[in-house]
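Students often ask what a 'structure token' actually looks like in practice. Rather than answer in the abstract, let us consider Nucleolar complex protein 3 homolog, a protein of 798 residues. Its sequence is given first.
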Amino acid sequence: MAPRKSKKKAPSFRKLLKTSNIKIENKLKNRQFKQQSIAKKHRKEQKKLKQALSNAATRTPLPLERYKKRPEDEEDEEEFEETLPVDMMEEDDLEQMKAMAQKASFLTRDLSSSEPVHARKRKQENVMDKYEKVPRLMQKEQEKELIHLLPIKDKTGIIPQTMEKPVVKKAEKENEDEGDGDGAEEVNAPKPLPLLTTQELVVLRRKRLEERKVCIAALGSSILSDPSANIKKLKELRSMLVELDPYVAVTVRKLVMVSLMEIFKDIVPSYRIRPLTEAEKSTKVKKETQQLREFEEGLVSQYKFYLENLEQTVKDWKQMKKKKSDVVSLKSYKGLAEVAVKCLCELLVALPHFNFHNNIIVMIVPLMNHDCKKISEMSCEAVRKLFKQDKVGQASLGMVKVISGLVKSRNYEVKPEVLKALLCLRVKEVEVKKDADDIAPKKRFMNFKEKRKHLSRMQRKWKKAEEKLEKELLEAEATECKEKKLKLHTETLNIVFLTYFRILKKAQKSILLPCVLEGLAKFAHLINVEFFDDLLIVLHKLVESGDLSYRESLHCIQTAFHVLSGQGDVLNIDPLKFYTHLYKTLLRLHAGTANDDMIIVLQCLDVMLTKRRKQVSVQRALAFIKRLTTLSLQVLPNSTIGILATNRVLMHTFPKSDILLDNESQGSGIYLPELDEPEYCNPQNTSLWELHTLQRHYHPIVRKFAAHLIVGAPSEGSGALNVDLSRKSATDLFEDYSIKGMTFNPPVATPSSKKKEKFTIGDALLDSDLKKQIDSHLEATSILSHLNFAAHFRKAFI
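Now compare that with the structural description of the same chain:
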């Protein structure tokens, strides 16, 4: 019967081609797996065998087995021993028998006993069997080293010639070493260094330092002249970071750190270098491209090693553990660490786009909270610079994330300077919820089929030119970059507000609260509307608690009104309590202390009264104008100028406030200055009499503002202000006329230096006779010994 045919079809050639690579890979994998498993089993067996051999070699021999015998057997043995001819044996044979009896247990064993001889007999037999199976390693003779000589050419061909290298015996070598030992010790004995004086040591140190400086300068100039060709010299320069000469070690290391920092700032490209993939490495490229790749790879590796050296220097100083091989003393660690931190700060600011920038951020941020004041200030200053110059927001986002993690990990016990650095963020707008127009799909360009179907030939031509122009306009606008920037800014502010809200919730009595309130006041217009109600409640509780300082309460008021002046306009919230609190606490400012809080007061007044003019009543505005004018009498000159400038703006904003310049009272009641409620203190029944006092102020600008307000603050005419004063805001005027330098601003005019006029005698006299007498006496050459005025007086009247 013929064999049954298989119904399976033979695979076609094309199918074999498709699956052959997969099958080959599977076969290779299976083969590798089998080889690995076999090798693993072999290793296990070898390990067990070695362990068994080591156990057998180190095992101590078991003691001889002894069993108690019956008394009858003992009597029989004694009788048998008595019958033995012991006297016929020699002493040597007897001792040998006794020794054998002690070594072999089976000689003394009682065969009638049923006790087992060894419990591990079978296991030991297996071990011995395995040991027998192991191949023996025969001692091989040492292969003799051959010396190849010149070959010999014969009829048959070239015959190679070799010779055995002569071997010197060890014994002879040792004898020779012993024989020449004394002489060698005398020759190779190190000579003691000569003792140098202090002056000689200074000269020696200066000489060595000059040599190192020349070497650093030569390496640096060669790298900067051609970075791609001399990139390997970076390693040579970096090796000087571990200078071992104790005389110049500290100085040389500092110089090398700073030199490498400047070199990297110059040669680092303006883009981030990414590692090459396996496919890119395997492909063939041009010679120039290969050189560029080698340069970038070497630059990144050397930059990485340099940062690791700087980090290790800072860690050594923190731990204060001296290494055995280090020649630098513990006192010098601080100076090295300061230079290392300075280099890290420079690289943080100069290379925010390059590799390992996040690693530098992780190193710098903890140093902002360090106990060393100098290192903490350097780190905070570098972070502030980074925030100010970062236009896109990528580096700022990474920095804010690390700062937020630091504050949370330290349980909000960090220096206020850490959070004050966040005030330098360049965030002015964030993403808001998109409208229906923004969500609508963008205009799509027509493809070729649609154009051919719906447009004529001339229309297609015009359409093509129009689309090209639109694409160029889109590229010019850089909309993608703007969207990316908004996204980064939004994420950054979310992390900042998260940190602020955590401190407000969990650490209200922390030293970080003033920084939090100041930050909220600056970024309040960017807070999401969903948090407004809760935030205002928290701020009001803080103000009413009385635990805050005056500056902190001002920040609370400023934050609340920034929230309400932005997106909070749609909320129906009356901040009357905040108005009352500011009106009540205004008179705390005086000239006895520095008026640093005055600038916050001026900002609050601008937000509360000027920007919210529609929500402010006339009574409230009049009360604030009167209270501010009273305050201007007891503060420093620059604060007075800022207050009067604010009053000028309020008088323009609320035209009905001109009743304060009239002496006649209007309405019922009298003015109650001690009342803390601005709505009910009857400010319309008083006048700004303080302006007349300010007209006699010693500061010229104060006198100008007082005279300007008395006549109603006109914009034109004789009572108007100069353009320089009228166009500046109150805060700008406060800063311009500051007296922080303990000088008058503007300076006091010096008196004019006029020469004294000479007194011309006689010209001013009315009597001509008296004038003649005086002239005659002045012209006389001789001087009278004594003058008789009575005689001369009589002669004149005769």
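One point worth highlighting: The two ends are 195 Å apart (CA to CA). Ask yourself how you might have guessed this from the sequence alone, and why that guess would often be unreliable.
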